Amino acid sequence: MAGQANTNPDFFGFADLLTDAERDELAGISEYLHREVKPLAQDAWERAEFPFEVIGKFAELGIAGFQYPEYGDGQQRRPLFNGFLGIEMNKVDPSLAVASGVHTGLAMGSIHGGGDQRQRDRWIPDMVAWNKIGAFGLTEPEGGSDVAGGMRTTARREDDEWVLNGTKRWIGNGTFADLVVVWARDEADGNVKAFVVEKSVPGFSASKIEGKISLRSVQNADLSFDDVRVPESNRLQNIDSFRDTAKVLAKTRGNVAWQALGVAIRAYELAREYAVTREQFGKPIGSFQMIQDLLVKMLGNITAMFGLVTRLAQKMEAGSAGADHAALAKSFTTTKMRECVSWAREVFGGNGIVLDYEVAKFFADAEAVYSFEGSREMNTLIVGKSITGHSAFV
């Protein structure tokens, strides 16, 4: 016997913590994203191409300035609002959400937090307007989790210039970015420093990584630096060690936790809708106990994820969120997301492996979200050190 269905994946009503004005703004953004951005996403993902038309649409939304109000519309938005925005972005398309996040979070965040006022004024206004696209060059071919100790890209000071040599890998937006924040080890003191490398500078090249099965629209690149010269004015003045890199990552890991929630929610929504419309043995499969078990497990994961990221946002607003809080959020939510997309695909049976039903894309995209911004294991060790006082890193 069918009854009234509760279709809201926010089962405990965490959105009630938003103000009416915040909910109205999110509703408008969501409507715009579904109308203007979503139609570009599926075909671009299948072709592994970035839909450049989306840049103008993101610029029209003004979302790049939300975290930096002095360069945006001047309105200070709460971390909780920005988190819910992340949900909406990722429900539409995780690839385009990542491309936006690399630009606004990693690249702009590095310049905003690591640059001096002159550098912020030089680059951020154009980045807010999407006139210049940013990328973030940290990971290396031989240094993923061990990039802190194993960074091989070097920087050598020569008068008022720095000479960069090395390679980077998995750099989102890397094939078309106007500027890349490049992290390199100073040959003189051994400390990690950050440099803004603008495209077309001699000795810099980027090549697209082909054959990805996840976040296919994101243009990840291999970057090469062969005696690339940048002026001292392009060295981010407030970054002097890898600890400063970690500060940037602590903020963006919180964003990834919300991203994982958005991916899980959309997978759940697709599975629930399919379960109540797909019929087998003369009735909707949603009336079968084993299908309901999968849906309820997904909803339980989503609710737990909501609780964690909401509290993280509150601590960020209060200024009491630490790197260990962000690490636990990223580790936990991406693990639960991975379970959710797997169960969602299972609800679809064979239909879950074709793009016609959309869930396949979220199932694949979850693998990259699970892996970047620190693997589950590395984030676990950050939290482990926090709670025991002992470092278990190699």
TrEMBL record:
InterPro entries in the cross-refs: ACX4-like (IPR045008), Acyl-CoA_DH_CS (IPR006089), Acyl-CoA_Oxase/DH_mid-dom (IPR006091), Acyl-CoA_Oxase/DH_mid-dom_sf (IPR046373), AcylCo_DH-like_C (IPR036250), AcylCo_DH/oxidase_C (IPR009075), AcylCoA_DH/ox_N (IPR013786), AcylCoA_DH/ox_N_sf (IPR037069)
A GO biological process held by the record: fatty acid beta-oxidation
Keyword tags: FAD, Flavoprotein, Oxidoreductase
An annotated Gene Ontology molecular function: acyl-CoA dehydrogenase activity
Names of required cofactors: FAD
Residues in Acyl-CoA dehydrogenase/oxidase N-terminal domain copies: 26-129
This protein's record includes keyword Aminoacyl-tRNA synthetase: no
Residue ranges of domain Acyl-CoA dehydrogenase/oxidase C-terminal in the record: 245-387
Keyword check for RNA-binding: no
Residue ranges constituting the Acyl-CoA oxidase/dehydrogenase middle domain according to the UniProt record: 135-228
Family as reported in the entry's similarity comment: Belongs to the acyl-CoA dehydrogenase family.
Protein name per its UniProtKB record: Glutaryl-CoA dehydrogenase
Gene source species: Halopolyspora algeriensis
